[in-house]
Amino acid sequence: MKLTDWPLAERPREKLLNSGPASLSDAELVAIFLRTGLPGKTVVDLARELLNAFGGLRPLLESGRQSFCAHPGLGVAKYAQLHATQEMARRHLQATLERGITICEPDTPRQFLSSRLRHFGQEVFACMYLDAQHRLIEFREHFYGTIDGASVYPRELVKAALECNAAAVILPHTHPSGIAEPSSADKAITCRIQDALALVDVRVLDHMIVGDADVLSFAERGLI
Known about the structure:
The chain is of the alpha+beta class. It contains ten helices and five strands. It has a five-stranded mixed beta sheet, sandwiched between helices. Helix 6 packs antiparallel against helix 7.
């Protein structure tokens, strides 16, 4: 049966318009992205096949170009479209934080940090620079390392904090292992950065570890 023969309320696009995107299954969301199926195969059937082949929605969205484009129904144009959409979502989250929202608890930056940093296969150390009201001034990715760790230089964070005229910072970094638990090295570098920034009256509000499914907050754990 062709998709056009389906009841109107069951077609993914109409279902989204009538009931909102949260009402759609993963396959229906992918079907809207794909727009068209293949000969003898509806776009929803194609979407289900792709989800099965990749092992779910997230592996599909995070797949590399070669793997993505190798599947029937996908290609370079779809790959570019997907990554443009993801980048728009990341910029939307950052713009939301930059509208003057006060960051007073870890839940506020969690989604933004996960979207910006979770996909890295190596350790990345970044910094959110905040004003005196704890509003975002700038987000910067500073240090990149191997899967085992990154070399972090507190003096570079001090320099950037002065450039941004920051009053406080949040220190996010990734754990490529996917496990968002602080190591002894994480705790040690936090203390070093706190001491360095204290010399220029900049407060470290939190250190957040971005894992596979969670973002851990030092502040919530009582570690800062």
